[in-house]
C-alpha cells in the first residue's frame, strides 16, 4: 500500500515568515526616536524651542500685567495665555518641520534609496516616522506642562473633560502634522535646502495663527487666512482647554467651536494622508 507524501519546503527559508507592514513599522519607532535625540539641532529647534519661547514671553511681557478677555473680567498671566499656542507650535514643529527636513535629508543622502531596496514598504516607513512624532510629541508636551506648572506658576485644568479635549486635539494635531511633514518633504530639492524651504513657511503660520501674537488682535483678513490651515485650529483647541471660558469671546466667532476644530483637523489629516502617499518616492524623479 503506497502513501502519498506532500512536498514540503526545505532549506533555510522553510518556516520563516517575514513580518508584516505594521510589525516593521512598529519596530522602526525605537530606531527613529533614538536617531531623533542623536541630532542636537532637531532636539533644539523642535523639542526645546516651544519651552524656550514660553520662558522668553513670560519673562518679557509679565510686567505688563494679566491679559483680560474684557474690562473688569478676570484675566490670566502672560505665560498662561501663551501656553496653548506653544503646545500647538510644538505639535507643528515635531511633525511638519522635523519630518519634512529629516525625510528630505534622507532622500538627499541616499538613505531612502537604500531603504527602497529592502522589504520595508512606504507604509512601514510612515509608521516609524509617525510613531516617532507621537513619542517625542508626548514627551515634549509633558515637559512643557511640567515647566508651566512648576517654573512659571501656571495653573493647569483640573476638570476631566478639559483633559479629554486636550487628548483628542493633541492626537489629531500630531497625526495631521506628521502626515503633512511627510508630504512637505517632497518640496525641497535637496537636504541642504530643506530648512530654507520649510522653516519660513512654518514661521509665518505661527505668527498668523495665534502662537506668537494674540490672535484676537490680528486683522480679520489675516484670521481668515489662518483659518485655512491646521495650526489655527490646533491653537484654538488648546486655548479651549487651558484658558477660562470667558476667553472664548476673543475667538474669531466668539466661541471655542470645538466641533469645527475636529472637522478642520480631520480634513487636514485626510489631505496629509493622500498627499504623503501620492508624493512620496524613495528616489526623487528628477534625481
From TrEMBL:
A Pfam family assignment: ABC2_membrane_3
ABC transmembrane type-2 domain span: 41-286
Compartments, record wording: Membrane
Membrane-crossing residue ranges in chain numbering: 42-61, 81-104, 133-157, 163-184, 196-217, 258-280
Tagged with keyword Lipoprotein: no
UniProt keyword list: Antibiotic resistance, Membrane, Transmembrane, Transmembrane helix
Organism from which the protein derives: Agromyces marinus
Topology term for the membrane: Multi-pass membrane protein
Descriptive protein name: Transport permease protein
Main location: membrane
